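Help needed: design a sequence for this.
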């Protein structure tokens, strides 16, 4: 009998570095980040990294299988300016 397939959900943060590369990270998984020239490529790469992290971190894998929805809720991102001397 085949194992039931679970859909695991993660939130990816996307930034763009000074060279124009997209940098993606999944805060829920330690060490889960990658970069790419396009967003399409970034999405493909981050999925590969997620799978590698889950294969190597059994505890993270078990935790995620128990709760497959994305665990982090982001509210907003703001740019803050402060005066600093």
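Sure. Designed sequence:
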């Amino acid at each position: 009998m085949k194992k039931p397939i679970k859909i695991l959900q993660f939130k990816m943060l996307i930034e763009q570095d000074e060279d124009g590369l997209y940098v993606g990270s999944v805060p829920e998984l330690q060490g889960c980040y990658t970069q790419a020239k396009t967003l399409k490529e970034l999405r493909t790469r981050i999925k590969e990294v997620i799978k590698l992290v889950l294969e190597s971190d059994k505890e993270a894998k078990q935790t995620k299988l128990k709760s497959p929805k994305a665990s982090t809720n982001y509210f907003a991102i703001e740019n803050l300016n402060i005066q600093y001397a």
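Helices lie at 39-56, 58-66.
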